[in-house]
Design a protein that fits this description.
By secondary structure, the protein is mainly beta. The protein has 17 helices and 67 strands. The C terminus is likely disordered.
Length: about 1300
Amino acid sequence: MKISTNKLKHTFKKILKKIKIPVVFLIVLFAIVFSLFRALTPWAAKYKSEFESQASIRLGQPVTIQSLETSWYWFKPVLKLNDVRLHDNQNNILTLNKLLVGIDLWDSLWNWQIRPGVLYLGDVDLVLHQKQDHWEIDGLKYDKQSMQVNSGSYLTILGWLLSQESVIVKHLSAKAYLVDGAVIALKEFNFKAVNSYGNYKIYGNAELQQKNPTAISLVAKIHINPEEISKLEGKIYISLQNFIPTQWSKFLPNLPYTMKKGVCNLDSWLDMKNGKLASLQTVVDFKNISLLDTVRAKTHNIKSLQANILWKNTRFGWKILADKIKLNLDGLIWPENKLSIVYFDEEQKYSLYVQKLMLSSLFATNIAWPNEMREILKARPKGELYDTQLHFKESKLNYILTRFSNISWYPIKKIPAVENISGVLYWEPTEGRLVLDSEKTTLIPKKYPPITFEVFNSDIYWKELNNGLRIDLDRFILSNDNLVLSASGVLDNFKKPDSSIRLEGEFSAKNASQFLEYIPSGHLKPKFEEWLKKDVRKINSACGRVLINGKLDDFPFDSKAGEFLVTSHVSGVDIAINNNWPLNQDINADLEFKKRDFTANVDSANLQGLAVNKLNLAVNNIGSGRESLLIHGEVDAPGSDIKKYIYHTPLNTRLARWKKLEIADEFWVDLNLDIPLYPENNHVVALGEMVFSENPVAFNFDNTKVLIDDVTGNLKFNEYGLTTGQLKGMLDGSPLSLQARSLISPKERTEISVFGEMSIDYLRKVTSMPIFSLFGGSFNISALWTIYPSVNNSDNLLVESNLQEVSIDLPPPFNKSAGAIALLKAEIEFANKDNLLAQINFNNILDAKLFFRSKKENFSFTKGEILIGNGSAGLPNQVGLHISGIFDSFDTSKWATTLSKIPKKDSSSSSINFLYSADFKINDFILSGKSYKDLVFKVQKNTKNEWSFNFNQVNFSGNLLYDISTNSVSGVMDKLFVNLPNDKSNKLSFKPRDIPNLDISVKDFKVNELSLGSLEVKSNSTATDFNLNSLIIKSPDFIINGEGKWRSVAGKDKTGVKTNIEIKDLAKSLERFNISPVVSSRHGSVNFDGQWNSAAYDFSLKNLVGDMYVILRNGRISNFDKSVEEKLGLGKLLSILSLQTIPRRLKLDFSDLAQDGYSFDVFKGVFDLNSGVMSTTDSYIDGPVAYAKMSGSFDLTKHLYDINLKITPYITASLPVVATIAGGPIAGFATWVASSIINKGMQNISGYTYKISGPWKDPVVQQVKIYKKSHPDKKSS
C-alpha cells in the first residue's frame, strides 16, 4: 500500500512539472486581459449620459445611472451599472441596485458581432398591482401609459430574456397587491438560466413572506427557440413547501369546491413536448384542508391527503394514475389506495378503476350524492369493494364490475339488515351476474332475532330477452349448524303478468321451529300465519323437498294449473292446536303440503303424557281464514293419561262435570275431533267411544273418593258428554250398574241412571267424616243424573234412599234404629260449570238448601240455610250459612257424651267458618242435669272477627260479644243465677288457653238463690296463664275484691288468689248468706292471700296454703242456743266468746246482764292455712267486759277444734259501769251492791283458760285453769 502511494505521488509531480509553464502562461495572459478590460472603465464612463439618454428615450421615462464601469463576471466581461433608477409620472421609482450587462467575448470574436452575454440583476424591489386583465409595475411606463404585463407582454419579455447567454437574478423581492386587497410578498427570489444554443438549464428558489413562509424551488432543463416559445420542450421540476392554496384561489377558474384553509407540500415533474404538457407527475401532501361545497353549502375536512399522481396524455385521450393514496377525510381514515381514470375523447367515455373502497367511509362523507342514491344511503352500507371498475358513456353508467367483501347494511323498507356478504358483481343494462361466496353471513330481519349462516353461496344470472327478463338461479346454498338449504330454478318474465317460476329445493334442519318466525308476513292469512309461528313450539329436526312450478301469480295453484308440493319428515315436534289446547309433544310424522292442503301421518306422539302411535291429522284449504284441524286416532292407554289430556283441552268446559272421574288401567278410545285453529272460534266437534274392560273407576268430590271396581261396558260420547252406553261394576263388594241414554223430547238430554248399595263403613272411609262414626249399617242408592247439552238448561242429580238398614246414634230428634225407615232425598242442580244448588231433606226433621261455587276444581260453599224441625229451608241473600230451628229437648250432657264419641279431626273447612247467624228455641234445655225451660238463643256474625250472642231464660239473660282476633268476651248480663252442683263427679278439664279474655258485668248475681249484688269480671289468658285481673262483687253490705293467677306449664298447675272483703254491715252480710246474724259489726275487713298446686277449678281446702287476716270493730257476739251452734259449725267458739260459759261463782244470777251477748271493741285474727288446717297464735277479742286470747288450730276438712282460749274478765273494775249502761240505774245499783259483797273474793281472780277440742258440732270444752293475782303485802307479812 505504501509503495503504490509513493508511486502515485511521484507520477503527480512529474505531470505538475510538465504543465507548470503553460499554466503560468495562461494565468499571466488572463491577468493582462482582465487588466486591459478594467482599463477601459474611464472610457466607458464617458458614455454614461448617452446611456441614460438612450434608455430614457426607449423606456419613455427618466432613467438615471449613478455610475458606469467595466468589470468581469467570472470569466466574462460586463458593463456594471450601479444604482439605476426609473421614474414614472407618479414619482414612483424603480431602483436596480446592481445591473450587469455582458457580451459573450469569445462568441462575438468567433462570429465577429456582438453577442449577448450575462444579464445580472441584483437587489431589486418590485411592486406589482393586479388589475382586471393585466398587471402594473411601479416605476415602469411605456408610451406614457403604465407598463402593463399581460399575455402579450409576457412573451416579449420572455423572448428578450431568453436571448441572453445567461440570466441571473439575486436577492429580488416583490410585493403583489391583488384586486381584493390581499398582498403577496416574495422574498429572496434567486434565479439562474443558462442558455447553450437553445438548451436552457434553469435553477430558481424563492420564499413567500408570511407567518409560515412558503419555500419555492425550480429546476428545469428545456429547449426553447426564442422565436417559437410555444414549442417548448423539456422537463421541469417544481417544489412548493408549506404552500397555502387559499392564497392562489383567485387565480383559479370557478370550481364547485372552494378551499377555505389548509397547507400542502407539492413536488411536481412536468414533461413538455411541442409546447404542450405531455405528462405531469405530482407528489402531494395536504394537511388540514377545508373544502366548501359551494352548491350544497357543506364543508369537507381533509385532515391529510397524500398521493403520487400521474397525468399523461394519450393518443385517444388522457389518463390519470394515482397510487400511495392516503386520505383522512371528515374524520375517517381510508386505507392506502390506488386509482385510475381513463378518458376516451372520441367516445366521450370514462373508465374508472379504484383498488379499494370503504363503503362506510365513502357514504359518510358529505358528498352531494344523486337522488337515486338516497335509499341506499338510508341503509348505511358498509364493507369493502375491491378492483372496482365503472364505465360511463355520455355521463351515464353502463358497466360495473367489482369484488365485494364483508358487505353489511341496515334494514330499509322490506329489505332486512345483512352482515358479511362477499362475492362478485357484474352488471350491464341488459344483463348481469351475482356470485356470492360468503362465510359467517348474518341476516337480521326486522322484529326477529338475527340468524347467522356459516356458508352463503349462490350464482344468479339475469338477462333481458326478447320476451322479458329471465333470472336463472344456478345455485343457492345456505348453511349453518341447524340448517342446510339448497335450491335452483328459473324465473321467466319477471314483473310481468305471465311470469312463471320453476324452483326445486331441499332442506335439512335441526331445531327447525326457530326458522318458522322468518316466514315472510303477508303471504299467508294472518290468523294461520300467527298460529304457525306461535303454536308450533318445537321441531327438533326436519328434512324434505320443495317443488314450485307454474305461473307466479297463481301460487299456490289451488284453483289454477301448477305444482306446489312440500314433503317432509319431522321429529320431536311440540305443537299447540290453539291457545286453549294443551301442548302436544314429541310428534314424529310424515308431512305433505299440497297446494292449500296439509296432511300428517303421525308415527308417535305424546299428548300431555298420553302416548299415541297412530294418528292422522289434516288441515284443508289453508289460507281461507277458517282452518280447522281434523284428527282421527285410536288410543289404548291408561285412563289417567286420557283424562289428563282431555281436561287440558276446550272439552274441559263441557266435560267439567266428569272431571272428578278417574279411570285406572288401560282402556280403548276411538276419537274424532274437528278443532278450529283460532281461539275466537272455540267450538270443538267431537265424536268417540270408550270401551272398558274390568277397569277400576273412581269418583272424587272434594276429599271424598268413591271407587267402583271391575267396570265393564262401553260409552259413546260427543263434545257435550255421554250419549249412550251401559256399565257394570262393584261398589264395596256390592253390584252397581250405570245406564246412559239420550232423549230428545221434551228437551234434548242424556240420562244416567245408577243403582246400587253402599255400607256406612265404606262411606265413613271414603269421606273421612268423623260424624259417620255414629252411623251404622248400609243403605241403598237410587240416582238419576240428567245432563243437557244446551247451556240454557241446568244438569240435575237426584239421589234417594230410605236408610232402612242404617242406625244413627245421635240424641233426639236425629236418632234412628236399624229397620226403621227414614227417607233421605238429595237433589243437586248444576246451574252451570261454576254453580251448584243442593236441596237435602232428612225424614222431614232437617231440611237444607245450600249453594256452592266452583273454586280450584272443587265446589266451595257460598250460602245456604239449615232448618231443624218442620218446614222448608230457603236460600238467604247474605253469603254464609244460617241455622234455625226448634228443639223440644236439648240435653247438653247427652250431646257432649255423643260428640265425645266422634274422633277428633282438625278441619279448616268447619261450618263455623261459613256460619253468619243462628237462632234456636229450646223448650227444655238441660245443663248439668238441671232443666232450663224456654231458652231463646241467637248468634249473629257482626264482622269477620266479631260475634254477638243474645240469650234469654229465667235464670240468665244478656248480650255478649266475642272477638275472634283477640279471643275476648265482653258485654253486660241482666241476670245470672248460678246453682252450684253438690255432685262433683263431673270432673272439669281445660287449660288457660281455653278461657277467653273476659270483660263481663252482671247486674243481678245470685249463687244458690243467694243474692250477692252485682258482679264484674276482667281477665286475660295466654297459652300458659289465666290472669284474673279483677273480680268485684258489690252489695250494700259488703264489697268483695279479688284477683288471681293460674299457671299451667308442662303438666304442672299452680293457682294463687288474693281477696279483700270490706264489711259495711256484718249482720246483714250474714243474712245474705242465710246465716244467723250472731255477730254484728259496722266496720271490718277480711284479707286472704293463698294458693294451691292445681288448676283453678280443682280447688280443695286440703291443697290450700295461705294467710288470712280478719279485723272487726265495735261489734257484738249475740247469745244463741245449742241449735244455733250446730247450724253455725263454729258456733261453740262464738258461744264461749260471748261469755256464756264464764262460771257463776257467785250465788247471784247475772244472766240478765249478758242476755244480749258480748260487745267487743275489736276482734283481730291472724291465721295460717296449710293442708286444710287454719292455725293462729295471736288472735284476740277485746271488749269492755273481758279480753280473750286464742291460739291453736281449726281443721277445716275434718271439722275439728284444737283451741286454747284465755279469758280475762274486767268484772271488778267495769261490771257496775257496764251494768248501768246495759240495765239502767237500778241494775247499776244492784251490781254495785253485788260488787261490794264479792269484791273481796273476786279481786283475787285474774283470768280463766279453756281447752276446746273435738268436732265442731259437739266439741269438748274444758276449763283448765283459774289465774289469781299475787298479794305482795301478805307475802311480806
